[in-house]
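Duplicate of #3305? Posting structure anyway:
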């Protein structure tokens, strides 16, 4: 009987956990024995997917949802028996606001990612000048750009070229740049939002492309989560992996990686694990350190992927203390506005079951992560006082910090990714997966993990 294939996964975030499950399932399909070990340096699994309950409030510290159009997260939830707990954004609260000039401006109906699909509502908004509105209306007349080879463009440049500077700076950049907690002037549109480039190429216009996409949608919300928060996906996955015999080791930090016929994974403290295949499901800068002694070119390519930090402040209020109707999912703040906050999500308006009866939950994304927690709370409250008129004391506060956790797929990222893939081909059995390689959202991480898990079982070392 053939020896069991030994797989070691470094990193217990959603990508690593998804990889472990995929490896187990692939082994069953092939009728072969697979031993999977997941090593996580902290005491908990899930990475940046953290859900807490505080005084009756449910807080998703990291991503609070995923895009339905990418099916991996929804499919995983259903496979784990969580289909009945799937939750969509409230349809009646789908509008959002832009903070501009010390006030909130509702984004006109039909303006999708800054792309106008209805022009009548655009005429009455005070968010844009008449020149800005005219420029947006002319988008269908802008010739598409032909990207060739490694040609690339930032999100900001792409949006400015197609929609004009006002739409780019006031809507597109804060929305799309905020997803990566980065600057839209740096982030590659081809790497981070290839669907927009494809829309331009296929339809010759974002307006025409958005209209086609709108007709194809069912009218349901494009975002989904779980009643128990995104952390419930992690909990369900961890439980399933334990039932399947996967070894999950917390507080197990990997010190080095070596190739000695098979792979040798050395932990801090000296313990060594032998493996036929190794997946590095950790941030690229952490993977770079582990491969530095094996392949300097690979290490340098991994190190070149930048990561940003994010800080969020949760504020719980009595509903009677908030005069704003909270008739949407929240607001974003253009970088050029120079405010101390980048966005605010009205969590209890966006999702059911996030705040106790008679209360509301707000999540503020704050710049200046070096400040103490009480200073960050004060900053968030000051901005909400200016923009939303909230003077009351919150009944609950909670601050979350994620240092160097948000991958910045900058212009030129596709070249870096090609280099990483080429170098990995020279190291049989070694793979990488997770946010910052090929997408950053929950479904992207799950997809990469599942692809790696299956491949590690199929490959012959």
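Output from current build:
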């Amino acid at each position: 009987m053939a020896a069991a294939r030994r797989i070691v996964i470094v990193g217990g975030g959603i990508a690593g956990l998804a990889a472990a499950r995929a490896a187990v399932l692939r082994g069953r399909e092939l009728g072969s024995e697979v031993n999977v070990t997941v090593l996580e340096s902290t005491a908990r699994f899930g990475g940046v997917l953290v859900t807490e309950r505080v005084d009756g409030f449910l807080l998703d510290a990291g991503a609070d949802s995923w895009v339905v159009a990418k099916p991996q997260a929804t499919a995983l939830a259903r496979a784990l028996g969580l289909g009945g707990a799937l939750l969509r954004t409230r349809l009646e609260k789908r509008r959002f606001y832009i903070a501009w000039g010390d006030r909130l401006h509702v984004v006109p109906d039909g303006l999708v990612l800054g792309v106008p699909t209805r022009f009548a509502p655009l005429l009455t908004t005070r968010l844009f000048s008449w020149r800005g509105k005219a420029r947006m209306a002319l988008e269908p007349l802008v010739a598409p750009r032909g990207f060739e080879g490694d040609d690339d463009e930032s999100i900001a440049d792409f949006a400015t070229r197609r929609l004009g500077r006002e739409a780019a700076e006031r809507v597109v950049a804060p929305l799309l740049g905020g997803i990566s907690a980065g600057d839209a002037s740096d982030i590659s549109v081809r790497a981070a939002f290839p669907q927009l480039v494809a829309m331009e190429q296929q339809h010759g216009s974002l307006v025409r492309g958005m209209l086609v996409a709108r007709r194809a949608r069912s009218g349901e919300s494009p975002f989904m989560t779980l009643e128990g928060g995104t952390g419930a996906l992690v909990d369900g996955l961890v439980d399933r992996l334990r039932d399947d015999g996967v070894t999950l080791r917390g507080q197990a930090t990997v010190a080095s990686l070596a190739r000695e016929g098979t792979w040798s994974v050395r932990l801090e403290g000296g313990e060594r694990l032998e493996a036929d295949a190794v997946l590095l499901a950790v941030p690229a800068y952490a993977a770079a350190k582990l491969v530095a002694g094996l392949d300097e070119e690979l290490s340098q390519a991994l190190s070149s992927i930048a990561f940003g930090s994010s800080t969020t402040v949760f504020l719980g209020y009595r509903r009677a203390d908030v005069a704003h109707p909270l008739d949407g999912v929240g607001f974003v703040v253009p970088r050029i506005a120079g405010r101390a906050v980048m966005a605010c999500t009205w969590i209890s308006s966006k999702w059911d079951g996030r705040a106790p009866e008679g209360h509301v939950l707000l999540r503020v994304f704050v710049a200046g992560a070096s400040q103490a927690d009480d200073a960050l709370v004060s900053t968030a409250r000051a901005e909400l006082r200016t923009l939303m008129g909230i003077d009351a004391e919150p009944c609950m506060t909670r601050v979350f910090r994620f240092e160097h956790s948000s991958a910045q797929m900058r212009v030129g990222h596709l070249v870096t990714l090609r280099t990483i893939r080429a170098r990995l081909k020279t190291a049989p059995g070694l793979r990488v997966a997770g946010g910052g390689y090929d997408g950053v959202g929950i479904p992207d991480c799950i997809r990469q993990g599942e692809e790696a898990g299956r491949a590690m079982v199929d490959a012959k070392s």
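Confirmed duplicate; merging threads. The radius of gyration is 23 Å. The chain has a mean pLDDT of 91.
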